[in-house]
User: Which sequence fits this backbone?
């Protein structure tokens, strides 16, 4: 028999919110409090939505905004990006982090240009077939760009559903089948409301039901929240993954890549060696960049951003 946690038992005994009431409360709050973000404006179009979704993965809005604006000014259509070498996407990505996303976005733009006449497809399966597009991104673009009915499960949405419905402080480290079933069960029946619900729950998690300091006094569904009604039980699941950066291979990779982004041509091993003085870690980071397709060796000891 599977053991139940005190938080889960408390959630079961707490009064359940009517699903329609959840929809009404959260979408009404969103109508009044949603941030004016450029990818939410009509002029962004599906391509702007897709670019934002790639950039926002594991990256806060404040860091994305300036890069997003520059990206769309330079490449307002997928075909424009597809016509450039992938290294230009890496260069324009700047210091957003996780630069393989830039290569994936370039590959998606190329596929959109070749397969879909330069228009971001509105079909979920067609989106999912694009390079670099997973289940979350396909659902998000279909929902936010085209108003389609899909469960959009990012970290913010998962945290809201974990607290409000399941009665626990944090969702599992990785998305589970149970979470997907819950999200699907809570999804409004009509497309327009479902799309608003997807955006609204994401915004609620970003602004109010935050990971460390949830502002329950501002929450439109505090009266229904199973976690609050259970007395805010502390997280008793597996330890939450922390993120470190200083001194890691990821930091060294970023420093090496910055040298290539800022150069007007290929760079030498001497220029790379000057960035980080620990040779083993530096070589490991450089080898990783080459393996990931972010850096191309031109000759012995000479490197550049990828051209193909």
Assistant:
């Amino acid at each position: 028999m599977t053991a139940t946690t005190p938080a889960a038992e408390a959630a079961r005994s707490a009064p359940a919110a009517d699903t329609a009431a959840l929809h009404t409360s959260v979408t009404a709050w969103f109508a009044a409090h949603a941030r004016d973000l450029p990818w939410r404006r009509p002029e962004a179009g599906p391509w702007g939505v897709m670019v934002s979704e790639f950039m926002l993965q594991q990256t806060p809005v404040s860091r994305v905004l300036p890069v997003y604006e520059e990206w769309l000014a330079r490449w307002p259509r997928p075909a424009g990006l597809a016509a450039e070498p992938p290294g230009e996407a890496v260069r324009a990505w700047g210091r957003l982090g996780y630069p393989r996303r830039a290569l994936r976005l370039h590959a998606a733009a190329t596929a959109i240009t070749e397969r879909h006449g330069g228009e971001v497809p509105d079909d979920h399966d067609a989106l999912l077939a694009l390079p670099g597009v997973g289940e979350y991104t396909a659902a998000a673009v279909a929902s936010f760009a085209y108003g389609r009915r899909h469960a959009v499960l990012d970290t913010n949405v998962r945290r809201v559903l974990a607290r409000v419905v399941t009665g626990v402080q944090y969702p599992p480290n990785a998305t589970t089948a149970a979470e997907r079933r819950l999200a699907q069960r809570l999804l409004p029946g009509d497309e327009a409301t479902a799309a608003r619900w997807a955006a609204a729950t994401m915004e609620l998690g970003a602004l109010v039901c935050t990971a460390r300091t949830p502002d329950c006094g501002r929450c439109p569904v505090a009266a229904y929240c199973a976690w609050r009604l259970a007395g805010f039980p502390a997280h008793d699941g597996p330890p939450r993954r922390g993120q470190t950066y200083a001194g890691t291979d990821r930091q060294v990779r970023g420093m090496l890549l910055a040298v290539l982004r800022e150069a007007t041509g290929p760079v030498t091993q001497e220029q790379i060696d000057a960035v980080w003085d620990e040779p083993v870690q530096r070589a490991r980071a450089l080898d990783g960049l080459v393996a990931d397709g972010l850096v191309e060796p031109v000759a012995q000891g000479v490197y550049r951003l990828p051209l193909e």
User: Anything to note?
Assistant: Residues 249-300 form one domain. The CA atoms of residues 14 and 229 lie 6 Å apart. The two ends are 55 Å apart (CA to CA).
